[in-house]
Design brief:
Elements (H helix, E strand, L loop, with lengths): L1 H19 L4 H30 L2 H12 L4 H19 L1 H18 L5 H13 L9 H9 L5 H26 L19 H18 L6 H18 L11 H18 L3 H9 L5 H18 L1 H12 L2 H13 L9 H12 L6 H26 L1
Length: 384
């Protein structure tokens, strides 16, 4: 509810700016034309993943992953790394934070293992793994537009090297700090059956069909919306009780809308000029590091979405926008509020009675985030 309150307050402030002339109406309308497809995609893909979870798709994936682990905790963890990375890349970081986190907790407990290494893996990969494709992160969708709408493959061609670094480096740290927990063996417990096979197979087919469509170059809101309509229709016939207002990520949409409008109002009144001085210009390795580290600091100070929006005008080119994405996507590992995905992740941990000390989380983030951002930015400079 705090998310909704903050979003509503920002919307009011942005609306006041528009009414009083601080934000020109032409700028506000141009902003709406830019962001409505992004918000629609967020709504649609959230509905798809929530309904697929209700159908048991992710539970079956977890159970199959446990079998593939062959009783070795380290192998099971590597499989979780693969699933979390793919979930983030193709279905967005919020999907990993919201839906995969409970799956891996259940998976770890099902195998009698400490859930913390697996939970830390999901939250770090939800952030650092979201660089490769436009659909991986809301910031990427914004950057894709600012880059001139490159295709998903063109976007990936620019981002592949920093994306690889941002996945590998944090996972090396998890492997090192959790080496004792990952050396043990496990025995899987009794598996859950699928409650409704028809719903399961239709949901699995929809998700399987959606993934390639999201990287096909079609505007992502179209296949995501179509997939949501199909699943809503099927659930209306077979499990109507699942269809509730809570399926919609209304708090996230309200927050994102408020941030969009508020930051646009600040830009109309000189914020961009100030940030351009801080983040510099140019595309040398040092210039790109200056921008990406500014993005990292901004994300951990105020959240990655407003940090991106504030710095986007100072980026100015595809390579600089890529550096900014490294900072705001791979950098939000330090403070709890650095990304909405982290807050959602912690909410899921609490609901499963899994405790993590924020002090430890912050210290680990201080170790991992700057190194990841620096090395990923240098990888971008070497390959762009």
């Amino acid at each position: 509810m705090r998310t909704a309150i903050v979003g509503a307050a920002l919307l009011v402030l942005g609306g006041v700016a528009a009414v009083t002339g601080l934000l020109p109406w032409s700028d506000a309308l141009a902003l709406w034309d830019r962001v409505w497809p992004i918000l629609l995609f967020v709504i649609a893909v959230t509905v798809v993943t929530e309904l697929a979870s209700e159908a048991g798709v992710f539970t079956v994936i977890a159970q199959q992953t446990a079998r593939w682990g062959r009783g070795r905790a380290w192998l099971l963890w590597l499989l979780v790394v693969a699933v979390a990375a793919l979930s983030t890349i193709f279905l967005s970081l919020d999907t990993t934070a919201v839906l995969l986190t409970p799956v891996v907790i259940v998976l770890a407990r099902h195998a009698g293992l400490d859930p913390l290494p697996f939970a830390l893996t999901t939250v770090w990969l939800a952030n650092t793994g979201s660089l490769l494709l436009p659909v991986s992160n809301l910031t990427n969708l914004l950057a894709q537009h600012a880059m001139g709408d490159p295709s998903p493959l063109q976007f990936a061609a620019l981002m592949w090297a920093p994306a690889a670094v941002a996945i590998i480096l944090p996972m090396v740290v998890v492997a090192v700090i959790s080496r004792k927990q990952l050396r043990v063996r496990y025995v899987t417990g009794e598996e859950e059956g699928v409650e409704d096979p028809v719903l399961f197979w239709i949901s699995a087919a929809v998700v399987a069909a959606l993934v390639p469509l999201l990287v096909s170059g079609i505007p992502v809101w179209l296949p995501a919306s179509a997939a949501a309509v199909v699943l809503i229709t099927v659930f209306a016939v077979r499990r109507r009780d699942v269809l509730r207002f809570g399926l919609l990520p209304w708090q996230l949409v309200l927050l994102a809308s408020g941030l969009f409008l508020f930051i646009e109002a600040l830009h109309a009144n000189g914020l961009g000029t100030l940030l351009a001085r801080v983040s510099g210009s140019g595309e040398s390795p040092l210039d790109l590091l200056r921008l990406s580290l500014t993005g990292m600091v901004g994300a951990n100070a105020i959240d990655n979405l407003p940090a991106y929006l504030a710095l986007e005008p100072a980026a100015g080119s595809p390579v600089r926008l890529a550096a900014l994405l490294i900072g705001v996507n791979a950098g939000p590992l330090i403070t709890p509020w650095a990304s909405l995905a982290t807050l959602l992740w912690h909410q899921r941990l609490s609901s499963f009675d899994v405790r993590i000390r924020w002090r430890r989380y912050v210290l680990l983030g201080l170790l991992v985030a700057p190194v990841t951002v620096v090395v990923a930015t240098l990888a971008l400079a070497a390959t762009a």
